[in-house]
TrEMBL record:
Keywords: Cytoplasm, Cytoskeleton. SMART domains: Arfaptin, BAR. It holds the Pfam family BAR. InterPro entries: AH/BAR_dom_sf (IPR027267), AH_dom (IPR010504), BAR_dom (IPR004148), BIN3/RVS161-like (IPR046982), GYF-like_dom_sf (IPR035445), GYF_2 (IPR025640). GO terms for molecular function: protein domain specific binding. Residues 241-252 have a biased composition (Polar residues). It is found in: Cytoplasm, Cytoskeleton. GO terms for cellular component: actin cytoskeleton; cytoplasm. It comes from the Eukaryota. The keyword Cytoplasm applies. It comes from Acrasis kona. Residues 230-253 are annotated as: Disordered. This is BAR domain-containing protein.
Length: 338
């Protein structure tokens, strides 16, 4: 740990001036592991989020059904229609029964046996990401000193002690990098290898809970059957993709916005398209050589146009194997200006 701390303290200004010029060390095994790591992290977060939303939606249904039952009761409280009064009382009881026999058991079982273990799994990712960020800094430093040693070897220095000193710095940087590289790969591999043992029982449990919820809901709602009639057919819209549905919803909402706000929203929709190679997480180094990010490319555009970053700012992301200035990444400056 002391060697890691010392590595961060060594000549940061000199290293900053050299960013992007050294030939990067590439570990293809690490790149493959990191790609799987990022993908699994995103998917795991999505799974936990959507299971949580499912619980909330089921709970909201029973609550709204209870409110609807109260409305139904009040509508017929002053009439002589005994059947409607009976139906309203039954609907009130059904709302409570659904909450107690279907929604609450689903919530408790899913939270205990699905959300808790998957959330624990998701919590393992941020520490590994921190190791990845440390690795990037140490790799950058090692590449810098290695490049300096190469330069001093190719041309004779006026100071005979300069090459041995630089070799010593390079060796220290390499030891630090090798140690953090092995630790990061091991940590990420452990997380990826345990995915199946976490999610296999969880998915089976979730399917069982959904079936149980449906059975209990159907049994409870069937009590209303004698008070209802066959549903009339309605206009069934053509299936739409989630993206298209979201776009349609926004458009409908914009009709209700004040003209100024609507024009701003429509203006945002004209954002220049992002090329595939830039559709990823991006990081940059600020003036204090501190890593900032992750940001998507739209955020990077805003920072570029506001002057937070420039064509000389060092960035990392996508297919880059090392830090590079914006100006040296093909087409990046052009796309940031778009």
């Amino acid at each position: 740990m002391d060697s890691l701390k010392s590595a961060f303290r060594r000549t940061t200004q000199t290293v900053m001036e050299k960013f992007g010029k050294a030939e990067g060390t590439i570990d293809t095994d690490y790149q493959d592991i990191y790609t799987q790591f990022n993908s699994t992290w995103k998917t795991s977060q999505g799974f936990s989020k959507h299971v949580g939303q499912l619980i909330e939606n089921f709970h909201a249904m029973s609550i709204n059904l209870h409110f609807l039952a109260e409305d139904f009761r009040d509508l017929y409280s002053h009439t002589a229609d005994a059947q409607k009064k009976e139906a309203s009382v039954l609907l009130m009881g059904i709302a409570e029964e659904l909450e107690n026999k279907a929604v609450l058991p689903f919530q408790n079982q899913v939270t205990t046996h699905i959300l808790n273990p998957t959330n624990i799994y998701v919590e393992r990712f941020p520490p590994a990401k921190d190791l990845h960020n440390q690795r990037k800094k140490l790799l950058l430093e090692y590449d810098y000193y290695r490049d300096k040693v190469k330069g001093l070897t190719e041309k004779q220095s006026k100071n005979p002690l300069e090459l041995p000193k630089m070799k010593e710095k390079m060796n220290v940087a390499k030891d630090d990098y090798d140690r953090i590289n092995d630790l990061t790969k091991s940590t990420m591999t452990d997380i990826l290898s345990s995915k199946s043992e976490v999610y296999s029982p969880v998915v089976e449990q979730l399917i069982g809970n959904l079936i149980q919820y449906n059975e209990r809901t159907s049994a409870t709602m069937s009590k209303l059957k004698k008070f209802g009639r066959e549903p009339l057919a309605g206009n069934v819209p053509s299936p739409v993709s989630p993206t298209l549905h979201s776009s349609t919803t926004v458009t409908a909402h914009q009709r209700e916005l004040p003209a100024r706000v609507q024009s701003m929203s429509l203006g945002g929709a004209k954002e220049a398209p992002i090329p595939p190679q830039f559709k990823c997480e991006w990081f940059y180094l600020d003036n204090n050589v501190e890593q900032q990010g992750p940001f998507d490319f739209i955020d990077m555009r805003k920072k570029f146009k506001s002057g937070v970053i420039s064509d000389q700012t060092h960035v990392f992301g996508g297919e880059l194997s090392d830090w590079k200035t914006v100006a040296t990444v093909p087409n990046m400056k052009k796309e940031l200006q778009a």
